[in-house]
Amino acid sequence: MEIRATTEQDREAFVATMNSAFGLFPGPTTEDGGGAWWSAFELDRGLVAVADDGRPVGTAAAYTFELTLPGGAVVPVSGVTAVGVAPTHRRRGALTAMMRRQLADIRERGEFLSVLLASEAVIYRRFGYGPATWTNRLTVPRRRADLITPRAGGEDTGTVELLRSDDCQEILEDVYNRYRLAQPGALSRPHRWWALRAGQPPISPAPRYIVLHRDAAGVPDGYASYALGDLDRVTKTSILTVDEVIAVDDEVFTTLARTVLGHDLIGQVVFKHVPAWHPLRWQLEDIRSGETSAEEDWLWVRLLDVPRALAARGWIADGELVLDVDDAFLGERNRYLLTVRDGKAECVETEREPDLTLDVSDLGSIYLGGATPSTLVRAGRIQAHQAGAAAVADTLFRTEQPPHCLHWF
């Protein structure tokens, strides 16, 4: 079994091998490949596993993204994707070999973080990835969708207009970019994605309506992308599904939500990506009308350089903690002294006794603030060696704004 890098000349074989691994068939594309979700692949960052007879039997790739960290820092990350092995060649070490080679390549690029969306939750912990953000689906019946009137000071002074996604791609790209720079856990959407119409709506060519919000000065600062399902002949209503609501603040989000919730001939509105901590449910006149479902892990995070990663994010409490971090997949185990002062961290190797012992995957889970160290201690994933160590870790890793990611890749 050989693991080798790919180039653009391998695109057709790479896509065919990836599709066979997932049991998929490629859909129709434009002549230049635009519009296909895989058209934004960076094949200079791809890997293929080749069997002894020369046939490609496995794939792995990575996108070049930026990730917004707690505190507002924006850092380069690798977005791992298209990881699969043909059914005929599983359990032969191809996946492990590709993941090991890929992590080595990412380190060689100088990146200290890697992220992915896990198709199966049991696969990626053994490679050092931990679930770091979560998202929910929120369903609201149209007849019970009234929102409360905001208190004084929360009124929206902007305007909304209705557009089609094909007519406002540049605006959507700009608004999303403003949003992701302010939201911890959010990933960039490179211009290449928008230009190729790669990914999911509203990036893809799939028809969507866009409710666009502009501030009092006329500057776009939020949008909701949605589509209606088939009309039910009995109820004479449809289901309105919102792909995403992107807003620079809560007032803009509320205005966009109020607009889609007020659509005519709708039986229910489904918001595909609403974090559990979002205030939308509390804004419903009938709090029981909003039904959350399909809660799922979304972004998984992998640290490749613990000191750099911990020093890069922002911190809101002072303190120190000794972390014994086990990275079994890479055969590394190191003990670090994390010292936080005035919002900045220093992380150095130490011989002091540890406060916490944890796997690098669990460090990935708490890194963005989406999970608390004490929860993982109680779950038996992290070991606390001193009384109160988990509480100290909770205080240190706490963030002002919870992480959320809705970009699909």
Tags for this model:
409 residues; alpha+beta; Aminopeptidase; Nonspecific Lipid-transfer Protein, Chain A; 3 domains; seven-stranded mixed beta sheet; 10 helices; 19 strands; globular
Molecular structure report:
- The protein is an alpha+beta fold and 409 residues long.
- The protein folds into three domains: 2-111, 3-Layer(aba) Sandwich (Aminopeptidase), CATH 3.40.630.30; 135-293, Aminopeptidase (3-Layer(aba) Sandwich); 306-397, Nonspecific Lipid-transfer Protein, Chain A.
- It contains ten helices and 19 strands.
- The chain has helices at 11-22, 94-108, 169-182, 191-196, 250-261, 280-283, 306-312, 360-367, 373-378, 389-397, and strands at residues 2-5, 47-50, 56-68, 74-85, 113-117, 130-131, 134-141, 159-164, 209-214, 220-228, 238-247, 266-274, 291-297, 299-303, 319-327, 332-341, 344-349, 356-359, 383-384.
- A seven-stranded mixed β-sheet has the order 1-2-3-4-5-14-6, sandwiched between helices. Strands 8-9-10-11-12-7-13 form a seven-stranded mixed β-sheet, sandwiched between helices. A five-stranded mixed β-sheet has the order 17-16-15-18-19.
- It starts with a strand and ends in a 12-residue tail after the last helix.
- The active site is at 124 (proton donor), 409 (proton acceptor).
- Belongs to the acetyltransferase Eis family.
- InterPro entries: Acetyltransf_17 (IPR041380), Acetyltransferase_Eis (IPR051554), Acyl_CoA_acyltransferase (IPR016181), Eis_dom (IPR025559), GNAT_dom (IPR000182), NAcTrfase_Eis (IPR022902), SCP2_sterol-bd_dom_sf (IPR036527).
- Pfam families: Acetyltransf_17, Acetyltransf_9, SCP2_2.
